[in-house]
Design a protein that fits this description.
206 residues; mainly alpha; Tetracycline Repressor, domain 2; 76% helix; 0% strand
Length: 206
């Protein structure tokens, strides 16, 4: 008889929560929050109903963890899109395109854009958005301002303004009958807006 090394409790907890989030992400994206039963989630995850409530408190708590997971994935896509770009302006444009491109993902459409504001309420949804997408946008604008690429402007206010516009554009794309066309048009419109912010080149510097 061989001895089995017991799995540390912290590792068990991490594995259980990761499995629940994985299963719930697929279920919420496929069926929506309202039509997804916790019984189905725990059955597919191979855990007890008590485990779900122990780790997340409620179905809404699990959904919030799923939303955070999806938002992290979107953030990673944006970060990966700008790897190797040394021009901060090109990085802003590229990252913004990647954010809009993510709106074609069914998980992003259903979980982040459609269900999240209704399930969590505007304040909680906005707080999570500010923690991820809006924070990255603010950092990009601050870097451009420091580099002299932007004229003097209130960066925090501009961050909120652009973030709201990009979220609305992403939702419009997700709900469009022709999503590829909507993505193309929204991307073009966003590029016009961003390029309009750029400080004109000083003729003396050319």
């Amino acid at each position: 008889m061989t001895d089995r090394t017991p799995i540390p409790k912290a590792q068990q907890t991490e594995a259980t929560t990761a499995r629940l989030i994985e299963v719930a992400t697929a279920a919420f994206a496929r069926d929506g929050y309202a039509h997804t039963a916790t019984e189905a989630i725990v059955a597919l995850a191979g855990v007890t109903r008590g485990a779900l409530y122990h780790h997340f408190g409620s179905k809404e708590g699990l959904f919030k963890a799923v939303l955070e997971h999806v938002q992290k994935q979107v953030g990673q896509r944006v970060e990966e899109s700008v790897v190797g770009l040394k021009d901060p302006w090109e990085a802003l444009l590229t990252g913004s395109r990647a954010f809009l491109q993510a709106s074609l993902d069914p998980q992003v459409q259903r979980i982040m854009l459609t269900d999240a504001p209704a399930v969590l309420g505007w304040s909680d949804w906005r707080a999570l958005d500010e923690q991820y997408s809006m924070r990255a946008l603010g950092e990009a604008l601050a870097e451009l301002a420091q580099a002299g690429e932007l004229p003097p402007m209130p960066i925090e206010a501009m961050t909120h303004l652009l973030s709201g516009a990009m979220n609305e554009a992403a939702l419009w794309i997700a709900q469009a009958s022709d999503q590829p066309r909507a993505l193309s048009e929204a991307t073009l419109a966003l590029e016009h807006v961003l390029n309009g912010l750029r400080r004109p080149a000083d003729p003396s510097e050319t």
